Structures are given as C-alpha cells and as structure tokens.
Amino acid sequence: MKGFKLKKALLLLVLLPAFMMACTFDMNRREIDEIDMVLVLGIDYKNGQYQLTALYSPGSGSGSEGGEKQDGGEGSEELASGSGKSAYLALQDLKERNKKALTLAQTGTFLIGEEAAKRGLWPCIDFLQRDETIKMESLIFITKGMSAEDFIKLGQENKKTIHEDLEAIKQKQLEALTRNDNTMVNILNDCRQSLSCVMIPYMTADDSGYKVEGYAVFNNYILRDYLDSETSDGVNFFRNLVRSYDIFIENKAGLLITYTKTKIEADLSEKAINVKVKLDFESMIKEVLTEEDIFSPQQLQKLTLEQNKYIEGILEKPVKYLIEKGLDILNLARVVENQNVAGWKDIEGSWSELLPYINYSYEIKSKVSKAFMLGVR
Amino acid sequence: MERVINSQQIKELFSKSADILVRQVTINQNNISFHLFCVDGLVDTDMLDNNILKPLLFDPYIRNYITEAQVIEYIKNRASYETFTSIETDYDKLLKAVLSGNAAFIFDAEKKALVFDIKKFDKRSISEPNEEGTIKGAKDSFIEVIRTNTALIRRRIRTEYLVCEQMQVGRVSKTDVALCYISNIANMDTVSKIRDIINSIDIDNLPTAAFMEEYLNPNKKSLFPQVMYTQRPDRVSANLSDGRIAVIVDGIPFVFILPCQLVMLMQSPEDYANHFIVGSSLRVLRYISMVVTLLLPAFYIAATTYQNQMLPMKLALSTQEAKANVPFSSATEVLGLLLAFEILIEAGLRLPKAVGTAMSILGGIVVGQSAVAANILSPLVVVIVSLAGIAGFVVPNQDLSSAIRVIRFILSLLAAICGFFGLTVGIIILLIHLCSLDNYGVAYLSPFVDIDESNHKDTLFRFPINYFKRRPHNIAPENNTKQT
C-alpha cells in the first residue's frame, strides 16, 4: 500500500510539470534579453500595402538587417520596418526581418498614419486586439498630415528619444484630463457604438517636437476630419474629462479651471430630442490684468458670469460642428440610449437624420476662488 | 532478580557507575543503619548534610525509636527539615526518583526507602529570550528545567484552574513532560487528545525539541509548522488564557502551544507592547514580507522568461539591459542564487560568531559583487534574491520561515517551467493545502476562514485590547468571554 502511494506521488511529481508544460507549450518561452521590445509602432498604408515601422529597444547584440540605429538621445532605439497586404502580414514581415524575436508586449504607443487612418481604423487595430501580450493601456494617436514612419523619422532626425517624448505627452495629457481616453481598450469599446464617432487624438510634429492638437474624427471607422483645438476642448468638457483648463478673459484675468463636473440629460418628447448640459466648475484666478478690485463681490460675480459665457462658447463649438457635419462627436447616441431605453428603439434607425435637430440648453454654474501668497489685491 | 528495595541489589546494579553513591550510615543513638542512595551532582549536598543527615545523627530523641519502621515514620514526620519527603516501597519508582535527582535512605529490613526531594544541579539562569526579544515586554525566558518553567507560568497565572499534569516520556531517558492548561477554559477533548498522544509515545529518548514537535504535529506531511513554540512565559500565559494547551518538556528551553494557527506564527510579542496602530502596521509589514519572500523570485522568473508584459516598460528595459551579458537564464540565475543564499545561511549557523561575520562579508558582498562584475549574475537578480531573503527573516517564526524558503524554491521552479501559469497553479495548490489543514479540530487558516467576525480582531490588524471581548470560539467553546 505504501509502495503504491509512493508511486502515485512520484507519478504526480512527474506528471504535474509535464501537464503544465503541455498547457503552456505555446507560451513562447523567451528570455527578456533575447527579445527586442517594440516601444512605438507606426502603422501606415503606402504603395498599396500596409507598412509597420517599429521603434524598439534592442537586447544585446541585436538589430535588424535593415535596422537604423538612432544617434540621438541615449542611442538605444532602433528602427525596423516590414510591409504586407494587411497589418498583420506586415508585422510578420517585420518579425522575419529582425534577428531577434520582436514583441509588442511593451509597446506604449501606436501611431496610425493619415493614409492608413483614411483607409479605416479597423484594419489597423484588428490584429492588435488579438495579440494577448498587448497592453490595454497602450495609447493610440493619429499622425496628422504625414505617415507614422515620417513622424518617427522626424523625431530621430531631431535627435529625440521618441518613446520618452511620447511618454511625456501622455503625462501632459493626464495633467489636463482626468483620464486618457485613447487607450487601446477605450477605443475598442468606443468602436462598439457604431452610431457615434470614434475620437482619437492626433499629433503634429515639427522641429521643436510633438504636440497633441485635438481629436481626429472617425465615422464608420474611417478618418473623416480633424477637430481644431477649441472644438476638441469642448468635446472634453462634454465627456467630463477636464482636469484643468486655462481661461483667458481679455483685459481682466487669467483663470485656471481646477474642477469640473458635466452631466448630460437627454429627453425624448414626440421625436424631439432635448439635450441639457449641466456643467459645474471651479476656477482659480492666476493672473489679474485690470486695475479694478477684481476680488470685490460685484466684480467676482461679473467674472463668474464671464467665465460661464466663455465656457458656454467652448461647449457650443462641438455642438455647432455636430450640427453642420451631422457627425455624433459627442457620443450622444449612447447618452440618449442609456437614458431613454424604450424611446431609443423608435429613433435608432433615423439617428443620423435627427442629429442636426437636437435642441441644446446649457446650465453652467461656477465659482471663482482667489489665489495669492501675500494679501495684496 | 527480585525487584524489592534492597541496598545490596542497588549496589550491584550500579557497581560500575562512579557517580552513584550507595553508602551505609549508622545512627549511633539506636544503632540502626540505612543506606544513603543518590546521584552525585544531582542532589543538593548542603541540604543533605545540614538539613537531613546532621539533625538526624545528633537527634537526642531518636534513641526512643528502635525499629526501622519507627525510625522511618519518625524521620518522615519529625526529624527531617526537608519538606518534600515521602516513603517509597516500589523498586522501580525508587530508581526513577533517585535518577531524577532525589536522595533516598534505604532501609533493607523494611524494604522501604525514604525519598527526599533535594534536587540541585547546574542550570542556566533565567535570561532574556534571544529569539523573541521585545523592547517593552517581559525579559524572562524559559530554561532547560521543567520545574522552573512551570513556575514561570504559574507566576503569571495564579488561578486554581491552572493544571500542570506531569508525565514521563522515553524508555531510557524518562524525560519529564508537563501538560498545562486552564481547566475551566480549555477544550477538554483537545486536552485528552494531546494527553493520549504523549502517553502513546514509545521511544527510548527525546533528545531534541523536534522529536516532541513531530509527535504533536497532527499533519506530519505538511511543510507548515503545526505546533507553535515560544521562549516567552508571557506568551504561554496569554495562550493558556485563550484556551490553548502548553506542553513543556524537560531539557528544552521552549514550550509548545496547541492548537496552532497560521496567524499565531505571524504574531510577535512586540505587537501588543506597542500602540495598536504601530502593532498593526508591523503585522501588515510581516504579511507583505511573507508574500515578497514567497513570490518575488518566482514572479521575476515568470516575468523575465514568459510574460514580460507584466513588467512596466522602464523596468523591462532596465531588466533587459542588466541581463544583457549574463550567459545564464533567469531561472538558473535565481535558483542558483537562492541555493547559494541557503548555503550561506547554513554555513553561518555552523561557524563561530567571529568567523561568521567575516564569511557573511565574503559571501554576501565580495562574492556577490564579483559575480555581478564578472557577468555571472545580473544585479537585479542579486537585488531580488537579497530582498526575498531579507523579507524571509521578518517572519517571526523560524519554522514558518524555513517552510516558506522551501516553498519559494518550488514556486520558482514552477515559474521556470511554465511562467505565471505554473506560479498560479503552485499558489492554488498551496492555498488548497493550507485550507485542508486541521489542527486539533481548528482550521489552520482560522480565523481568516471563520464566519464569526469577533475572531478577526487579532489577525492582520491588531485591534485595541478592549475589542478582545471573546476567546476564539473554536478553541475555548464553553467559556469564551474574555472581558466584559
């Protein structure tokens, strides 16, 4: 009996690791120094083919056949590219060209070139959502007016450490917004609501560096337009994303919004859609540009009204765009659907026609607080 | 051979033992002789001479007692200054008593002996506990003498319900074992279970604490310690008043406490000596350290070999850079260094203190640094293994710490075979094993797995003392009111 138990235990000892190894056979065991980690991946469409440009940090003694070592920054970033009839085939081509295995597990930023975006978002990101190693918090940007490859190369020419610069942009975004909505998971989630537009921030590049200007508008997963900076800010207010925002009231004051809360109420009455935007915010005086006593109760009240008007103007910009273009950039379809489940079924089919006829009203409340170190003015 | 009390027989029995004294003594006044029988070095000779023999030999009244029977009764009741005096008629019991350190007067005609409890042998004085020291707590600790240890406990628990049952274990060693409990609190079923286990031990000798521990261990195959040991009388008294049972073994400066749960092994006397927030913080730190020491090496192997996406980008890059010129795999590095770490610990235990310090420097700093410089190890692995090693020493119970060290190896191996999948399987098996452990009717993971939330007030966090209203119900089922 004892011998039998011992045999069973020994068998278990052998079988358990064997079973686990069998289960993990496809897990691609690879030491961390044996792989090249792609930090930034550019996705373009050129000459009838998808092209992927990978900026990666090479492990020791690696490099692709056609890899170009970056001279700038820490000198530890290399560039490689691959192309194919689809983005996935382009990735396979890229992997084949590289000496070491490439992984997208550490890719923090995906850049989609303008041409590729115009051909459609889905072919660019479909292969990414099926890769189990992809980080869901990776950011996606559109490169306005140029290909992702050129965008990366411009950074190299200007001796930038590109992935660090993009990381800095991410941090700056988080200073102004409560969250980054252009993560892989959020964009895939937005894609599920087909009646609204998918909004992805676009970037521009010049000799001084990279900058996020506003949102690129995707309708039916195809790039339609770029929003200007103020319209994009209005979208952020609608989406309740604003953490801090600068207001400048001419000849009076510069203010910094430190807290915002947006609530959108959608009401359906006999096929008329009424949207009420309730916005509460607090601001802090950062600069006084007038000789008047701005802190007197009357002046503060006046300032409050002026900043409310300013923000209302910002809110009206995306609304105006929505009415003009008939593109739901404010994700109103989801708001109306969630708040009017029964009524939504009746209007769902004609949503795009109804969009320009939505009635908007604003209820803006705000508070101005003082900020100074010495008690003067 | 007839087993009756007889001096000649005893003389023959111990004829080759120089330390056994069997000497004839005659009382002049009535010419009655008896044999003094004792073990040299185990009896208090001053007491024997001054309190027993001298008064007896100069006693003017003893001449009135002319038979051995009369003399025995007289000495027992009047002549001796020794409190603990008894008459023994059983040969085996007489041998046991004398070999335990008592002195005896053998009266051959009566086949009886007078036994005087005048044990005195060289013993260590009560000192500070070297493993469970506290700044604000009591400074005494148990020693190797069972009676001193029971006295230390009784000094703290002055209730008439404190019971110290004494037993002997070991066919040859005849080691004294005491079973202590508070009869109106402890679960008597558990007491009788433990008593039965001790009585059923049939071994010639109990040379170390581990022997008794193994007998008391209800799950012998488990790596986790099932019996808590402590050097501190205050800790024993606290556990006794919670309804637990203490087992004291002569010759061992520890006391075993049962039933034992995992939380007990993570508690330290310092927790109660400090403010409850400080105590709780220290306890949380200990649990974090336990997780770190158990999982960190395995996590590193899994993350650097299989799922590098688990690492933040910057850490992944620095790990890659650190490992760039090292010829070994992460698993080899970690497992090798863990092994080297164990070798260092083991060597440190065997070496004299002065050499030990030098060796620690040589092993830890010189060899470690050289290995990194020679690209045999990556610096991150040295940090990971050192951190895991140091965190392991935060666990207060040495047995638990040792168990964790072994499991750490197994988990690292599983992580090397199949990454986080293996690690997860290992953790699940570990949790299943822990959940299945039963310690004298109490779950080993109790009170984490208890429904009664009153038991949770002294686990991960140490609540203020006035919250401890009840004793653990599964340990003291009948009398569980601690304070009102």
Quick tags:
heterodimer; A: alpha/beta; 2 domains; 37% helix; 31% strand; B: 484 residues; alpha+beta; 5-stranded antiparallel β-sheet; 47% helix; 13% strand; elongated
Overall strand count of chain B: 12
Reported for the largest beta sheet of chain B, the result is: 5 strands, antiparallel
Rounded to the nearest angstrom, the radius of gyration of chain A is 26 Å
Strand order of the largest sheet of chain B: 1-2-4-5-3
Compute the gyration radius of chain B: what is it?
A: 30 Å
Number of helices of chain B: 16
What portion of residues of chain A belong to β-strands? 25-35%
* Oligomeric organization of the protein chains: heterodimer
* Rounded mean pLDDT score of chain A: 85
The total tally of domains of chain A equals 2
The number of distinct structural domains of chain B comes to 3
Distance between the termini of chain A: 93 Å
Pair with the most extensive interface? A-B, 27 and 26 residues
Number of alpha- plus pi-helical segments of chain A: 12
Class from helix and strand fractions of chain A: alpha/beta
Low-confidence stretches of chain A: 60-67, 69-75
Work out the number of β strands of chain A. 14
State the order of secondary-structure elements of chain B, H for helix, E for strand: HEEHHEHEEHEEHHEHEEHHHHHHHHEE
What composes the largest sheet of chain A? 10 strands, mixed
